[in-house]
What we know:
Blueprint: H1 2-5, H2 23-50
Amino acid sequence: IQLSLEYDPHPPFQSGHPRVADRALVGRVREQLAARYDERREQLEAVAKSW
């Protein structure tokens, strides 16, 4: 959660920003976010076509 929000003022865990998070974790979060963005893009395109 910290990484996806880029919460990094004084985080309780060192994962609030890609520069301090574990590289493998950063990769997994990016993959998850990309999948969500793709799904949302498809939904928005479908809505736009229906107007």
